[in-house]
Amino acid sequence: MSSKTSADNKKKLQVAIVGSGNWGSAIASHIGEKVRSSGKDQFEEKISMWCKEEDVDGEKITELINRTHENKKYLPDHKISDNVVAIPDLKEAVKDADILVFVVPHQFLKKTCEEMKGNIKQNAFALSLIKGFYVDDKTNDILLISEVIKNTLNIDCLTMMGANIAKEVAAKVFCEATIGTKNKEHSTIIKSLIDSDKFRLRFFPDVEIIEMLGALKNIIAMIAGFSEGLECGFNTRAAILRLGLREMIEFCRLYHKESSYEIYLESCGMADLVASSLGGRNYDSAKKFVQTNKSLKEIEEEDLNGQSLQGPGTAEEVYRILKNKNLLDRFPLLRDAHLICDQKIKPKQLTDNLGNHPEFQTNQQ
Ligand SMILES: NC(=O)C1=CN([C@@H]2O[C@H](COP(=O)(O)OP(=O)(O)OC[C@H]3O[C@@H](n4cnc5c(N)ncnc54)[C@H](O)[C@@H]3O)[C@@H](O)[C@H]2O)C=CC1
Ligand SMILES: O=C(CO)COP(=O)(O)O
């Protein structure tokens, strides 16, 4: 008589991580460890991680990762679980995957999806960790990352956003994240794959809002960095976070009028805004922009060793959307962030004008 259980007979799910930067490497390792510790019956132990090939200290980055179990370029000083295998060929990395975890900087997503088209399993589904969005060339309006993934690959796409600074997740200190999905079966699978004592998940159906918040907080984090560069202090920074959160909510409500406050108070909203405005790359670079007078592009090249700032691109996209809707004056922080990045106005102009924010005009005695 066979001693096989039904779990043995059930086909295990294969996971591929599409991306291997700072966050990509950290989440790949978390997933690798989670699968090993409690997911062996449900998931294949080997996790494929697509890694764009490049040379690091005379060695191919994929070979370096697979030899040392560390991504010395994008996540130095943190070991990656050794069941994560870096694969340089995108099609090879994703072809057998049931779950595709997207975590490339947002400017590379469309090309990555195009290359994957026709090379993935029909019943696969995606989870996007990418913070950013596009402007649709036809409508001049917002085009979400999850929509690009869904439309290009014809698969379901969940989103995961939250206060998740990669090196802290890699150091295994507590954090939480928000999953957006309306698909119960997929949310149950993602809970088994990622949720742990040190990385708690909460689930909501508001996929679009969760994704928009993840992108918008990068813009407000840059403004917090500008104010810190100007040595404005904690009171001003706190005011920027409050006014910024207000604008983030109003922006989301352009698309989801009836959304309740609950979602904005989750990790994807207030918590990510706070974490990113204390210690994110967009915050740090914006602070340095004020202190050095270098452009953000120069700072990114000098300081980030190939990592990518998402704030400046998203600020430009939001500016375009608001301009097209004739709403720039209702969103002065979102508007001015782009003008500062583009060196059209000085950061001080923004901080000097905080007292004229529309928020103060609608609440006067
Ligand atoms: N780093 C963090 O703490 C967090 C990042 N995120 C989000 O995750 C996404 C990915 O961020 P990271 O993993 O930090 O990336 P990163 O900022 O470390 O970017 C480097 C990665 O981009 C890849 N890359 C460079 N050129 C490319 C190209 N032409 N095509 C495809 N890939 C290319 C590199 O190979 C490398 O894997 C972003 O949207 C970011 O906002 C979200 C939460 C935390
Ligand atoms: O999204 C992040 C933390 O949740 C990281 O933000 P940065 O890209 O600004 O580092």
Describe this structure in words.
- With 365 residues, the chain is α/β, with parallel strands linked by helices.
- The protein folds into two domains: 11-205, Rossmann fold; 209-361, N-(1-d-carboxylethyl)-l-norvaline Dehydrogenase, domain 2 (Orthogonal Bundle).
- It has 17 helices and 14 strands.
- Strands 7-2-1-8-9-12-13-14 form an eight-stranded mixed sheet, sandwiched between helices. Strands 3-4 form a two-stranded antiparallel ribbon.
- Helix 9 (207-229) packs antiparallel against helix 10 (234-255), helix 9 (207-229) runs parallel beside helix 12 (281-292) and helix 12 packs across helix 13 (296-303).
- It is globular, with a radius of gyration of 21 Å.
- The mean pLDDT is 96.
- The structure holds 1,4-dihydronicotinamide adenine dinucleotide and 1,3-dihydroxyacetonephosphate (13P).
- The site of 1,4-dihydronicotinamide adenine dinucleotide (NAI) has 25 residues, from helix 2.
Write the layout of secondary structure elements.
Elements: H1 6-9, E1 15-18, H2 22-38, E2 47-50, E3 55-56, E4 59-60, H3 61-68, E5 70-71, E6 75-79, E7 84-87, H4 90-94, E8 99-102, H5 109-116, E9 125-128, E10 133-135, E11 142-144, H6 145-153, E12 157-161, H7 166-170, E13 175-180, H8 184-194, E14 199-204, H9 207-229, H10 234-255, H11 267-279, H12 281-292, H13 296-303, H14 311-324, H15 332-341, H16 347-352, H17 358-361
Parallel strand pairs: 1-2, 1-8, 2-7, 8-9, 9-12, 13-14
Antiparallel strand pairs: 3-4, 5-6, 10-11, 12-13
Bound molecules: 1,4-dihydronicotinamide adenine dinucleotide and 1,3-dihydroxyacetonephosphate (13P).
1,3-dihydroxyacetonephosphate is lined by residues 131, 163-165, 218, 221, 272, 275-276, 280-282, 310.
Pfam family, one: NAD_Gly3P_dh_C
Active site: 217 (proton acceptor)
Binding site for substrate: 131, 281-282
